[in-house]
Amino acid sequence: MQQNRKAASRFNLSDMVTGFIGGVLWSTIAWLAYFFHFTNLSAADFVLRSWIWMPWADSWAGELIGILLVGILSVLVAFLYYVFLKKSQGIIPSILFGVALWVLVQIVLAPIIYGVESAFQADRNANITTMCLYLLYAVFIGYSVSYEYQQSQAYQDKT
Amino acid sequence: MAEKEKNPIPSKIDEVNDFMKERVGLGVSFDVGHRKLIILKKQIEIYYTTGLADAEIVQRVISKLISINDDEKNTNKIPEIIENRLVHMQVNRKQNIDDCVDAFLSGLIVVFIDGCDFAFVVDTRSYPGRQPMEPDTEKVIRGPRDGYTENIIINTALTRRRIRDERLRLEMMQVGERSKSDICIAYIEDVADPNLVKLIKEELKEIEIDGIPMADKSVEEFLVKQGNKPFPLVRYTERPDISAIHLYEGHVIIIVDTSPSVIITPTTYFHHLQHAEEYRESPAPGSFIRWIRLIGIFVSLYLLPFWYLVTVHPELLPATIDFIGPNKGGGHIPLFLQILLADLGIEFLRLAAIHTPTPLSTAMGLIAAVLIGEIAINVGLFTPEVILYVAISAVGSFVTPSFELSVSNKITRIIFLFATAIFGVPGFVISITLMMLILVGTKSLNTPYMWPFIPFNLKGLIQVIYRTPTPLSKIRPGITNPQDKARMPNS
User: Fold this and answer.
1) ipTM given for this complex
2) In this model, does residue B2 exceed pLDDT 50?
3) Are A36 and B432 an interchain contact pair (Cβ–Cβ within 8 Å)?
4) Residue A40: closest CA among chain B residues belongs to which residue?
5) Do β-strands B42-49 and B235-237 pair in parallel, antiparallel, or remain unpaired?
6) CB B148 within 8 Å of CB B263
7) Is B441 an interface residue toward A (CB < 8 Å)?
8) SS3 content of chain B, % helix, strand, coil (to 5)
9) In chain A, what residues touch B455 (CB-CB under 8 Å)?
C-alpha cells in the first residue's frame, strides 16, 4: 500500500503528455502569431535556428521541428512545475510561473541565444503577445499538473 | 427551509371546517372544494382542488366510500374500514393539517374523519399538460421524438424508462415558501460522486424564496452563483436520452416541476458543444459533424475581431493573403461602426423572430434579407465584406448547440471587437488571453470549467474532438469523479 501511494504520486506519463501537448499547442499558436506578424520570432528561432544553420531550418520543416522541440522541452517545464509547485491551488501560481518563465527566456536567456532579440529590443506588440502566450502556456501546464496531482491525492485519500 | 410550527389535526370535524374557511379560503376561492359524507353515522369530509384532481377517480373513491354504509356494520373500526375502502394505490396518513392543506392544494384529496386526529391523503393528481413531444431546440434526424414536459412525474417516468437500475435515485424535495415547487434530484447511487450530491442538496435546501415560477432557471441561479460571467455554468436538456446518458456518466440531474428542461450538473464548457445528433450518427460522420460545429463556434468567436484587426492593420497580413480587406476604401462610415451596426441588425432579427408568429416571420425575413442587406450596400452604408464576415459569425453562433453559449459567445465577441478597435494588436491579444484565463479560473460546482482542455486530460479531450464509438468508450469521463469508473463491467 505504501509503495502504491509513492508510485501514484510521482511525475507520471500523463504529466509528460500534458507538457508535450502544451508545448506543441502553444508554440503552434506562437507560430500563427509569427505568421501574422504579431511577433518577429517563432519558436524555431529560439530552439533550432540559433544552433543549426542549414537551409532547411529556415523552411516550414524548421518550424515543424522547432514546435516538436518546444514540446520536448515542455516536458522539462512540466517536471519543474511538478517538483516545485504541484501543491499550489488554482491558476494564480501558474500565471506567476508564466511571468517568471517569460522573464527567464525573453530577458535573461534571449541575449545569450544567437540571433534572438531580447524583450528590450522587441516592439510593444511582440512583447505583449509573447507575454500572453507564456501565460496561457504556463497555465495550461501548471494548472493541469497541479490539478492532476490533487485529483490523485484525493483519490488515494478515499481508498 | 426553516421548520415551521405545524398544527395538529383537530379531532372535531367542525374545527377542520373552520380552519379551512379561515386559512385556505374555503367558500371564497372557487377552486377549493369539499364534500360532506355520512359513513356509519360518522361525519366525513373530503377536500379537493377543482382542476387538479382527476374527477373520475374522485367519484370512484366517493362511491366506494358510500357503499360502506351498505356493506359494513362495525362502527368501532371506522378509520380502518375507510382506509381499506379507499380504492387507490397511493394512500397516506397525515398527522398535521398543514401537510393536508399542501396535499390537497397540489391535487390530492384529503379525507377527514370526525373524531380522528389524522387524515387520509389519496393521490388523485391529474395536471393539465401536454404529451411528450420533440423539443424544438434539440431536434435529431433519427432518434426518439419524446421530450420532457412541464410535469415532473412524466419527466421522472421518462428518465426511469431509460434507467431501470435499482440504484437510480429520484429524490424529491420542495422549494419555495408559497409555491412549494417540487424539485427532483436524480442520480445513480453507486456512480455519482456523493460529495456532489450532498453539495447540491445543501444548496437547494438553502434556497429561501416565495416561489420559483421561472423554475429551473431560478434554481440554477441559486445553485451556481454565476455573478456577471456570461458563460452558461449548467447545461439544460429537454431530451430524456441525453439526461440518461449523463446519469450513466455520473452526473446529477435536477428536474424542476413546471419546466420541460432539466439541469445537468456538473457542466464544463465542452458539454455545451455536444449535440445528440452526433451520437445518432456513426462515429466518423458524428466526428465530422462535431468538427464542423467546433469550427463554426471558433469562427463565431474570433473571425470578426481578427478580420477587423488585419483590415485596420494591413501590415500584419502575410503577402500570400493580402487581398483580404475592403478594396474600395472601406465605405463612408468607420469599419468598426459598420460591424457593430450589422451585428446589431442581426440581433434585432433574432430577438424579433422569437416572438413573431410564423406567418409574419417569413415577411420579416424577406424585409431583413433583401431590403436591409441589399440596399444598405447600394446606399453605401456597408461594404459587402462587412456583411460577409458578420453573416459568417452569425451563422457560426447559430451552429452552437447550446443557446446559452451562443449568446454568451456573442457578448465575448463584442468585447474582443471593442478591445481590438481601441487598442489594436495588444487589445486583441490581451482580451483573448484574459477571457481564456477567466474561463479557466471559473468553477461550476467545484468542477473546472475548461476541463478537459485546461486542466488537460488527454482521454477527455479525445472524447471531445472525436466522437468515440460506444463499444470503445469503456470508462466514464473523470470529470464527475465517478465512484465506479468502468462503463463496461467485464472489459
Assistant:
1) 0.91
2) no
3) no
4) B316
5) unpaired
6) no
7) yes
8) 50, 15, 35
9) 143-144, 147-148
Residue B136 has which C-alpha cell? 424544438
- Pick B429's closest partner by Cβ from A129, A143, A147: A129
- Range ranked top by mean pLDDT from B29-38, B73-82, B354-363, B367-376: B29-38
**Model confidence over A137-148: pLDDT tens digits?**
999 999 999 998
Nearest to A18 among B426, B432, B456 (CB): B456
Residues from chain B contacting residue A136 (CB–CB below 8 Å): 433, 436-437
CA–CA separation, A114 and B103 (whole Å): 81
Residues A48-81 have pLDDT tens digits of 888 888 888 888 899 999 999 999 999 999 999 9
Selection from A137, A129, A131, A109 nearest residue A46 by Cα: A109
- Asked whether B374 and B345 are in contact (CB, 8 A), the reply is no
In this predicted structure, what is the pLDDT of residue B349? 84
Give the three-state DSSP class for B324.
coil
Using CB atoms, which residue from B424, B436, B455 is nearest to A147?
B455
Quote the Cα angle for A84-A88-A93, to 5°.
Answer: 85
* Beta-carbon contacts below 8 Å between A and B: 64
Please give the DSSP secondary-structure letter assigned to residue B9.
P
Phi, psi torsion values for A106, nearest 5 degrees: -80, -25
- At residue A35 the predicted structure's pLDDT band, cuts being 50, 70 and 90, is very high
SS3 B118: coil
Which DSSP string corresponds to A73-114? Answer: HHHHHHHHHHHHHTT--SSHHHHHHHHHHHIIIIIIITTTST
Global confidence as pTM = 0.87
Distance CA B491, CA B487 (A): 9
To which residue does cell 441561479 refer? B221
The CA–CA distances, whole Å, from B391 to A113, B369, B395 equal 46, 11, 6
- Summarised one tens digit per residue, pLDDT across range B264-296 is 989 999 999 988 888 888 889 999 999 999 999
d(CA B491, CA B470): 13
Q: What is the mean pLDDT of residues B109-121?
A: 90
